[in-house]
Amino acid sequence: MRLPLTGICFAIFLTAVFAVTGSSQVKRMKILISADMEGVVGVVTGEQLSPQGFEYQRFREFMTQEVNTAIEAAFAAGATEIVVADSHGNGQNLLIEKLPKNITLVRSWPRPLMMVQGVDETFAGVIFIGYHSGTTNSTGVRAHTMSSATLADVQLNGVSVPEAGLNAAIAGHFNVPVIMISGDDAAVKEATDLLGNIEGAVVKWNYGFHSARTLMPEAANDLIREKVKRAIGRISEFKPYKVAPPIRLDVRFKNYRPAEVLSYLSIVERTDAHSIRFQGRDMIETAKFIEFMMHYEPGLTP
Ligand SMILES: [Zn+2]
Predict the structure, then answer these.
(1) Can you tell me the mean pLDDT for 141-159?
(2) Could you list the active site residues?
(3) pTM (2 d.p.)
């Protein structure tokens, strides 16, 4: 449809008026909360981390509490929409009936954007709750990257990244910064070393892979509340973690055969007995490759 020139001018004028009045009304701030479990208060061994553990059901409560605290604090500080990604183990840890009705929840695997599924360019920031340090870190409760049983290193363009770094890079693809992390002292230090001056809530101090001195749940929640509020208060200061494409992904397996079999694919290069390399166009393709690598097996059903 062609408008006469005066009509076009009037349309531009109206658009400008709506743009100005619209922006002075509701300012939208979408936040994604990615929740893991190893960095939740009190967690020290597998007994708290999987349905077989004698303390798992109770620690789902503590994990849910920490996520709830982050949600409440984020809304109180100005967030207008929150998506939570349940990102530990089976992806079905958070107690859905204990979460508020004004959020949405991402559950279970596989999913192409992994622990930050749901993020896109409309988000203002990402919060990590219950995070742990990476597999190349010699300190930290349950230090691992994606799988403590199978992976010994994950690198993006030559830099070893913990889950916090990998997920920050996926969010960074959409220009979304990580603004806050909670976990043990090793996880918080590793993330701030890599991502810059994000807010960090240290809820326990590790003595090793299976031991830590921990805050009590109420104190951990007070700290998480304070740090989330502070992070949202200075949200404009944070920069997205951008890994320049193409992305060179290097993965070192603990075992030999994953590298052998993956190298049958022409898109995969075997770089040594235990390691492979994949080049992704961007972080999205790279994340999908990792998710495929971690989840594919011919017995998948349905
Ligand atoms: Zn986990």
Answers:
(1) 95
(2) 144
(3) 0.91
